[in-house]
Design a protein that fits this description.
By secondary structure, the chain is mainly β. It contains no helices and 15 strands. The strands form four sheets. It has a four-stranded antiparallel beta sheet with strand order 1-2-3-4, with no helix packed on it. A four-stranded antiparallel beta sheet has the order 5-6-7-8, with no helix packed on it. Strand 7 and strand 8 form a beta hairpin. It is globular. The relative contact order is 0.12. The mean pLDDT is about 95.
Length: about 170
């Protein structure tokens, strides 16, 4: 079904914990973003079956555990063990915003389909929703569970699903 067609050695200096891929609505380019234990986010372009390095996005102080790209394919978000969520413009490779998520409160990140919010799973069993424009915590959803390892929005944005370390799936 699938076969390896390209391999990039030393994409990061240490383990890569997260990868995201999206097509840009601006120019139809395919953007790939990687986040690693080396505290870095890297952006890449995929074209003609070749992975072309674009930029290193610096700003995190500890390992990057999750990356995602908005539906328009123009903005990336990264979360780190340094308890920040960073937003990156993929065209300019510049940081747009840094959101302080609080101690150990940002693990996985996901953009809402409308691009207005970024959701983050936390060690405390909560999904925290931050406004993209405001950079502020807009809502916190309590699963009454443990560490939230993954989250996903429904395609229409009306629901959020999460999975925790305790094996529980919650839908809000």
């Amino acid at each position: 079904m699938y076969q390896q067609i390209h391999k990039r050695e030393s994409g990061h200096e240490d383990s890569i914990w997260s990868v995201a891929w999206a097509r840009s609505e601006k120019d139809n380019s395919e953007n790939i973003v990687t986040g690693g234990v080396d505290d870095l986010v890297k952006s890449w372009n995929w074209r003609d079956e070749f992975l072309d390095y674009k930029a290193t996005l610096k700003g995190h102080q500890l390992g990057v555990v999750s990356v995602t790209i908005n539906a328009a394919g123009t903005v990336a978000a990264s979360s780190s063990l340094d308890s920040t969520i960073k937003l990156w413009d993929l065209d300019s490779s510049k940081q747009i915003k840094s959101i302080d998520a609080g101690p150990v409160d940002c693990w996985t990140v996901a953009f809402s389909p409308d691009g207005q919010y970024i959701g983050s799973g936390s060690h405390s069993g909560k999904i925290n929703l931050f406004g993209i424009e405001s950079g502020k915590l807009e809502q916190s959803l309590d699963t009454r569970g443990k560490f939230i390892m993954s989250i996903a929005y429904s395609p229409d944005g009306h629901f959020i699903a999460c999975g925790g370390i305790d094996g529980i799936v919650c839908i809000f």
